[in-house]
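We modelled the chain as a single entity of 284 amino acids. Its sequence is:
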Amino acid sequence: MRGKRDAVCFEQPSVGSQEDSALRISSHGTIQAKLAFALLFLTAAGAGAQSAPSTQDGPMSVTPPQEVAPPAPQPSVDGSYALGPGIDAPKILQATPAVYPAETPPETPKNNSVIALVIQADGAPAHAHVVRSAGNSFDSAAMEAVQASKFAPGTLNGQPVPVRIRVGVHFSADHRPAIPLILVPPHRSPGEASSVDSEPVPIHRAELEYSDEARRMKITGNVLVSMLVTVEGLPTEIRVERSLGHGLDEKALEAASQYRFRPAMKDGKPVARRVNIEMNFQLY
């Protein structure tokens, strides 16, 4: 009986044997878990290394390019700003036509006076001087017309600032109204010269016509027209930059298409150049 019991006792594991067996199983499971985790880590690292550029020193960080903001406009020594990105050009609120000199003969050819000036923050013209002459008497008449015209100032970030501009006054043989017009070179077009020695100057202007609706409603004001003047002095790529509506935009484009220019010059050669021209509609 004792042997039988011993046999029975021998076949049944002891408490210590169960614990050892459990420990061996637990250790084996832990090792398997660690191996699985290590394998997962290596797989993820390998995928990351394939998806990211690398150098000899390790993975390379790729930063997307950031847009560089254009420099803010800066005033000159006298505190005035040049026309360009960030500066809204002054506008002619009321243009005063130049008075033709009394001694002007009927066969007088077409002439243009171009006057450079600063439109102050309060809209007053200042520091006006002739940069292209049509003759002393014509220049004096043009200067008086520009000084008598009313301007809205240019702006920077919505705030009025002094801005340098050029104004052209065109005198014709048939004594059409010589109305001051702002000459504004805007952003460059493909093929346009980046800088010039002299800007395009109108040598022929078409007379503005009123639309029936604008005349009936007594609409007055300016349409700003932009055009690229070719080396032949022809207006191309004509578009309205500032609208007046009531059919006057179309009339301004129609007139602009008939303009002819002395082209811009660079190093003694004609070059293409874009300009803005104020088309002034007034009822007299």
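As a brief sanity check on the tokenised model: Confidence is low (pLDDT under 50) at residues 1-27, 47-55. The chain has five helices and 18 strands.
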